[in-house]
## 1
Amino acid sequence: MGIFNKFSFIFLVIFLSLSANAEVQRHRFVIQATKVKRLCKTHNTITVNGMFPGPPLEIKNGDTLEVQVVNKARYNVTIHWHGVRQMRTGWADGPEFVTQCPIRPGGSYTYRFTVQGQEGTLWWHAHSSWLRATVYGALIIRPREGKSYPFPKPKRETPILLGEWWDTNPIDVVREAKRTGAAPNVSDAYTINAQPGDLYKCSSKETTIVPIDSGETNLLRVINAALNQPLFFKVANHKLTVVGADASYTKPFTTSVLMLGPGQTTDVLIRGDQPPSRYYMAARAYQSAQNAPFSASCAAKKCNAPTPIMPSLPAYNDTNTVTAFSQSFRSREKAEVPTDIDESLFFTIGLGLNNCPPNFRKRRCQGPNGTRFTASMNNVSFVLPRNFSLLQAYQQGIPGVFTTDFPANPPLKFDYTGNVSRSLFQPVPGTKLYKLKYGSRVQIVLQDTSIVTPENHPIHLHGYDFYIIAQGFGNFDPKKDTSKFNLVDPPMRNTVGVPVNGWAVIRFVADNPGVWIMHCHLDVHINWGLAMAFLVENGVGELQTIQPPPPDLPIC
């Protein structure tokens, strides 16, 4: 919960002069435990440089980042630069045991990469266990020197990071869930810029306040950094004009409400066109899974009536609003969508239930009817290696770490969104990759299933942006649904919300060699195995070949 303050004020910003050329920016991230007080209690919270949220990084298109990460915490850690293409620099992508071994306590690693051809809002976060509950921050990419936004220059820009807060150690929460096989405990609060806001106990003083003067237009860079929850976002009595998403510009459209899945970003313009007052900006859960627990925002509980004006938020299960919003996105220019497809893939995604192993006691099988929760793509529940990273194993030719037989289609066709047989609830564990030739043109149908429960899954692909050429409900039908394909101006994203009981179709060109994980960005689901990885082979010559690993790459 945050507040817009529309009283006049003086605002001082000091700008450093920048050269017209691209720069190398160097930063130091110290991962450390810091005392953080929320909801009346103080916790030893894992932070970056003692900041929560972590430090925002502001760069220009074309700049190079060098970020030394020093681990002074008691947990392994990695940092992922969410949405950065990482062209030929897969060693800097960050997912634990995929592109690197973790940075052990006391260790360090320097991430080096260039951001090229991307502008807008991305973010960075931990990609190890549940550390990203508190280890995250904004990554803002401005146009090159001398270039401008393709919309009127805003008076001010403000990052808005939506998050979740557990009134306990989130690492303990996920460890307990792994032990019991049950769903993890839900969060205790939603946050805006790491603050729960006025409507939660002991939170009023630190409520995020965003000033805006009458008549001016400001840019809000909204990031869903929540661990497990898609979120609606609204500002009372104000319209929002969407101008970008996932660091790609969009055709502008006006809306009163946003919905972001975890991992997604949306840039919006907001105009100070209402009478001077205080207006709440607020987030509420979008919960598409039936009978699944979630954290209710305080606005949905019996709370003290606020003095600022409160927005009217959609119902928590309002899929119609989500659909209307997601279908409004279009690329700003005509898109270069691949048409002659080399790899046509069909991936089912969803949850599952493993039968309780004979050697497990009942307390370790606390899922529905004495089972353990799991999840899969094409009936394969992804298992991360533990002794090598996948990229290291590929680059060094280490056998036995992974196989390249991830299925291009479901092993069994069934009524994906219908009443699914219980015999299909138990997937096969494996570390299976799908191999792509450099330059191949790829189409993937992502099909939700009703196994255990249908749900809106935010699917994130590392190392790539992709075009979302269609979305729909029910089972994807290639005879009918290809007529819905937008091959003219589909939105470019790095994270797609696959509709509950529905499907999404994405396309991209495999022009970035390396090992790239694709996973659900609900962290509870990636823990259960809702992931797979692509192995994109090198092409011809240096510019189509992944760079050699850096000398300080952590070893397992």
## 2
Amino acid sequence: MAGGGFVEDGGARAHLYEYRITGYFIFACIVAALGGSLFGYDLGVSGGVTSMDDFLKEFFPKVYRRKQAHLKETDYCKYDNQVLTLFTSSLYLAALFSTFGASYVTRNKGRRASIICGSISFFAGAILNAFAQNIAMLIIGRMLLGVGIGFGNQAVPLYLSEMAPAKVRGAVNQLFQLTTCLGIFIANFINYGAEKIHPWGWRLSLGLATVPATLMFVGGLFLPETPNSLVEQGRLDEGRKVLEKVRGTTKVDAEFADLIEASKTAQAIKHPFRNLFARKNRPQLVIGGLIPAFQQLTGMNSILFYAPVIFQSLGFGSGASLYSSTITSGTLVLATFVSMGLVDKLGRRLLFLEAGFEMIVCMVIVAITLAVNFGKGESLSKGIGVLLVIVICFFVFAYGRSWGPLGWLVPSEIFPLETRSAGQSMVVCNNMIFTALIAQCFLASLCHLKYGIFLLFAALIVIMSTFIACLLPETKQVPIEEIHLLWQKHWYWKRFCEPEENGHELDGKSGQND
């Protein structure tokens, strides 16, 4: 088996770690996890708004007229409009670029500072969108939302992974995914109600994004910084006090020693982005780079972005489509709770692999159903419509306990402290690149590839499941500052952990001496 187990040698002190779950720790993690609600609310609200008639009439009249012409018909190309999809994807392009600034803030000013910056930008973008008078205002507002998500997604997964004890790190980190899913779920209900408010219901949907931003900002003012970040900044006494407080014990010598050791290595690295490409960091670079891309290529975010649009294209009415997408987002919330209960018991690899198999089967069923029954200019029968919703819910349930939460958990825990902020920036960057590409291309692909787009996603899930089976070691219950020891035991990655014969290993030392 490709995965590793719990690391007990090579200088590890994990068996000496002590902790209790304290109220202080729970408060910090819940407040920080609110960052996921920004991402989730936007994922849920954008697809609903782009299917609302009042929104389309004001900004995209051509799409509205095409929709009315095929109101009760199945039509793959009903919503194929690149400016309309730019409304969605512009946010993720902005998040892509902002994450590099977020990396600097996260490393030098702390995880808490990035969380606060993200909430401010997201609030400003929500206000601009709510009062938009033209497409330019919409796009600028979306870009400000993107900056907020770039900062939040950069800092929150790191914050949760660093605050959590090793034995419950998986479940704690998945609070980010849980609040993301809750944001999607709530957004769908808001869209369902706002659609009935004419002609400004869409403004309410977009403007209510200020609520999670406000909660995140106010909560962020009271958040403690992570002990890892405080030690990295040289604030050792403060770091130890916070560590004792979040662990609920003064017996933190072993864990604090690991933090100091990791910090000394981190402080020697002057150019963390350059160090990412060091030979010894090749496992993290490859896994941390590909998992976020794979997460988007499952096809799940296409369903989240455009669930109302997809269901309308499948012949559902406008209200019914929003209701159906609410069901799928509720399924996502349920799946996250299941994953939180299993991830630290069964491990990351098993959840990835068994859910991947289910997702492949679901995509094939959707493709076959659409190939036989769809695209003939007629409404789908009620039975076929119900079948599609059920299969999509099974797909969402599989994704929600695997690629959804683990796509953020695994990258946030595999980088050493010296490259953790830079590594998380790469993770968010890759995630946003592929999120934007999927957002921009999915409706056009649905139009041109028709049911074949779902077969394409199935094939991609086969590839990514093979990658997980061969190249991802098991990280459950391994302390975050000892994850690097796993690579030394892995059948493939261990070759990158051995110094090269002439001593010229690319370990980032050039960056240390600059």
## 3
Amino acid sequence: MAAPKPEEISHPPMDQLQGLEYCIDSNPSWGESIALGFQHYILSLGTAVMIPSFLVPFMGGTDGDKVRVVQTLLFIQGINTLLQTLFGTRLPTVIGGSYAFMVPIISIIHDSSLTSIQDDHVRFLNTMRAVQGALIVASSIQIILGYSQIWAICSRFFSPLGMVPVISLVGFGLFDRGFPVVGRCVEIGIPMLILFVVFSQYLKNFHARQLPVLERFALLISITVIWAYAHLLTASGAYRHRPDITQVNCRTDKANLISSAPWIKIPYPLQWGAPTFDAGHAFGMMAAVLVSLIESTGAYKAASRLASATIPPAHVLSRGIGWQGIGILLNGLFGTLTGSTVSIENVGLLGSTRVGSRRVIQISAGFMIFFSMLGKFGALFASIPFTIFAAAYCVLFGLVASVGLSFLQFTNMNSMRNLFITGVALFLGLSVPEYFREYTLKAFHGPAHTNAGWFNDFLNTIFSSSPTVALIVAVFLDNTLEYRDSARDRGMPWWVKFRAFKGDSRNEEFYTLPFNLNRFFPPS
């Protein structure tokens, strides 16, 4: 038997991911684009509903307040997505709410000056205004780092090797939002997970009118079937005598969103009153803004692969971060109770559907804005049990993580140096945040617990983020361990051409601003 040739053993590295039906600047038909946009909108509801549902009751808010916050978050989510896809990185990314802001926001909620307020509604409004003020001030971090191109300069220290743990942990680091949540209601979570995998992978070659319907709309079909099944279980009284925690996670009528939602409500700036400003709150929130910046950097690079585009050049990445800062400023002005970051689940859906079209994401932004103003209709979709979304996250977060691992193809993984950096960064990126989470659950405060609340919030927020810990470890090791003689092993010969806009001719096709705006903002 003849020995296999080298090209039969390994696969050559590829700048752009193959196998996608539509890339960033190619579009499906209008009908298909609208349906895919609606699917992205439905997926974005998970985080948009979960964050206010968790925080508003702690603030003294009612179900009506919760609905208004969800509507406002969806409204700003749509605006930020449009801004990012038009003027930011121009990648097909949904800009949604972020869990990174939870630590400083919970700290504000527990501030003694706010908890001492007896009237629940007044306490809710005062807490909301305090969060708004902190977000407005903290947004300046991303605005300055982005538009001054400081983040572009920082990104010159990144390499494919250093980015592998960061991008991978953008997905893997969210493992606690996956099966641990599915396990809270296995009778709807497990069927959803199985159905989604079967439709998107095993039956993906099923065509109707030359369209791979089951692959393209696997998420939408699965959610519809399991949502109807969950409603049937609810209506039949299957959960009538079950514990409250089970009912919250399984029933379709426990969110109280539809009954509390107005028919029409248009969010507007300062709708909760004038924001209040506190230096300690703002400083703690700045840590969340930095975490959001790092997580989004990894997500943008993953999205570029799943949209079959080149890696965004440094100035395009920095431009996107600047617009994301504007987005956080809008979060503060309108009062969304969280800041903005790239929606990881929607990035994963690009790969699941094999459609990386920018137009699809812009249509989904239109759905967000439209249904945020039509309260009852938006609340109907938002009442989908979160367990159903968690089942989809098990697939979509894993897909994004594997995109991060795909960057290893540009590095030399026969190098002990590279193995050390990758392994240590991945392990610490998972282990350190898990320690911070476990500690907080047991002690009801983070490991950083001094008299300076802002300092506690800063450290607890930074080290609770897997991609942030991975970036600190991987970039430090990659730029200090034998870095002079390891440029090729790190993947720098491939990476360097994407640093500048003119380094690759394809960048102009993917990242040029619309309306001929490059005349006024020439790329560097």
## 4
Amino acid sequence: MDLRAELLKSIWYAFTALDVEKSGKVSKSQLKVLSHNLYTVLCIPHDPVALEEHFRDDDDGPVSSQGYMPYLNKYILDKVEEGAFVKENFDELCWTLTAKKNYKPDRNGNSVVSHQDAFKLWCLFNFLSEDKYPLIMVPDEVEYLLKKICTAMNVELNSCELDDCLSQEPQGQGGLTVWQFLDMVNSGRLLRGIEQEAISMAVEEVYQEVIEDVLKQGYLWKKGQLRRNWSERWFMLKPSALSYYMSEERKEKKGSITLDKHCCVEVLPDRDGKRCMFCVKTSSRTYEMSASDTRQRQEWTLAIQTAIRLQAEGKKSLHKDLKQKRREQREQREQRKAAKEEETQRLKQLQEEKERKLQELELLKEAQRQAEILLQEEEQRRRKQHEEMQRTLEIQLQEAEQARASMQAEMVLKEEEAERQRKRIMELEEMQERLQEALQQEVKARHDEESVRYAQKLKQLMKLKEEQEEYIIKTQLEKQVLKQEMENKNKCLEEAQKQLEEVRVNRLRVDQDVMAAQRKLRQASTNVKHWNVQMNRLMHPIEPGDKRTNMSGGGFAGYAPLMCRRDSSLKLKQKVEDKGSEPVRQSSKENVSNGGSSSSPLPSSDADTMATEASNQ
């Protein structure tokens, strides 16, 4: 802790004491008085111009600590020099301001500590408090300070009583304020049965050790340099020097031994009637001293070695170093505690996570068991469905094969019928040739009488001949197309058989396909029956007709029946073609939609038969 931080702690108490309304602000007039007193006790030259300039009256409102800090740092703390002022006077000024408002001793005079001892305890509290505002002292430092005081009185601190007191005090921000600490000391619970004078001496000793950096003090015998005689002196050891006085009142200082890293202390053997001797060697002189007993010599030598070590390490105060070490230990302890709590929390989370995982695992196992049971039931049900479907498909396949065999038999019959129709076509062609010959003969006979009419009718006959030849050619082409369609239907039949084999593999879709095939088979059978009836109506034996001798209008006798028969034949042919083409188109659509089932060739063969009969007629 540097000098600025120490001074700020005391000034903070003075500033808060001037804040009567506890608003965090102090009037400018009070701050001017406080600043003037600080100039005085810190031995800083007064700067009234800067003081007036900073607190000019253009704003009459009070000033907060943040508003006062710039002036305090620039014009007061930056000018402070260590050793140029008496630190105790500065602390007394701040204590006087804050004690009037906050320190409340027992009005009956039953306080454990006096007002001066309270001031020293206040200084000790400021030294050991944390470097954050508002100032507090953590319980560890409270225990440390009280143990130091009890050790100085050769009594033992009651730790249980201290813990009880600390638990009863409302600790703000993790520690005690100085007023809570003084109230706890004045309550007498910790220092019960001890006289006030002993407490005062112990507080003074601890104050000198901690605040004034007195490592050790007491009477020693010192050997003179010139006269070489032994004189008893009061020695006071600080980290920088070992001073000695005429008496313990320290009114007359006789000398001082400056200590540095080159000094050392050695134990000397007894001589000249003196015992428990030791010496302090500096770079310029050796100082011989004698203690009252061996214990005192050991304490003094250890204390002097500690002072030399502090000088070698460049440290000015032992207790500042010890305080920093204790603070680091507390921080490490808190870090370990936090790490332990974090580890405990993490282990707890891991345990909870583990339990949750185990619960999830149990749920998963239960779900897996349920799934296995459902899977087994589903497998059994599917196996049964598969067996039933396989049996159904086998029956349907047998029925389809029987239908195919019947369809093949019907195809053979249709082919025989087509052969008969071809023979009839040939007979019709021969009849046509004979009719043409008769027509030529009739034309030659009637050429003289009806030359003009004959020429016209000859043209009509020639035209009719061309139409008949075109019709015959068209009939032959349709016959070829029907044959090609029959071959295509046979191929479709083979594809249907392949699809029936694929049905065995596709068990889920075969039922619908077979039912569709059955429906189409029934429809095809219905169509076959229907067309058989139609064919029976249309198919009558065609015999050569007798020539009529009667002539209408004096024309050729066989010409009118021939034209009438031709017109009726053309109408019948057109009607049969219209009726035959409709089943063919329907069969083609069903063949495309159903992948060429076994019932599709039937309409084509019926159409072929009907077309042949129409040609024969």
